[in-house]
Amino acid sequence: MFLYDIKVENMKGETKVLSEYKGTVLLIVNTASKCGFTKQFGPLEQLNVKYKKDNFEVLGFPCNQFLRQDPGTNKEILEFCSLNFGVTFEMFRKINVKGKDIHPLYEYLVNNSPANQGKKIRWNFEKFLISSTGEIINRYQSKIIPEAIDEDILKLLDN
Predict the structure, then answer these.
(1) Domains within the chain, CATH numbers bracketed
(2) Residue of 35, 58, 59, 137 marked catalytic
């Protein structure tokens, strides 16, 4: 399986194939609305707005597997992100990012990442930087703030 073969469902209930993002640098993030890292939504949105014209997008995937920090419905999660952080980047339906019911996207990301390859997602707001050709460039732990990834994004956009 290749990243661009994976299907995901956005908050509108539309099925998207990740091949729709070919040519776009992506930052894929597992999110949660009631987490100590929730404040990262703001800087993630800032990155999204800053580089959108340069073919960059943040993709958010809510997850409720870490201390049930995203218990709401998909609609409630989307409203929370929009109202509290002005999120305009695409949010997808809640998924599992670890365990026996792991979503194929996160199974692929975890098993093919050059950093911490094969190691399960440890918490909300882990981030995966993907090149415009679908290559996983790096994996960032939750504590790495979005602003710290800015330089890595720029390198990909310059190529």
Answers:
(1) 3-147 (3.40.30.10)
(2) 35
Q: Which residues, in sequence order, are CB contacts of 50 under 8 Å at separation 6+?
A: none
Q: What is the pLDDT of residue 153?
A: 97
Tell me the whole-structure pTM to 2 decimals: 0.95
- Of 35, 50, 142, 126, the C-alpha closest to 81 is 35
| C-alpha–C-alpha distance, residues 105 and 56, integer Å | 19
Residue 116 phi, psi (nearest 5): 55, 40
In this prediction, what percent of the chain has a pLDDT beyond 70? 99
- Report the alpha-carbon distance of residue 139 to residue 136 in Å, rounded: 8
Cβ burial, residue 92 (10 Å; 0-12/13-18/19+): buried
81 annotated active-site: no
Strands in 25-31's sheet, in edge-to-edge order, are 90-91, 56-62, 25-31, 127-130, 136-140
Predicted pLDDT of residue 5? 96
Residues of the chain with pLDDT under 70: 1, 159
DSSP tag of 24: S
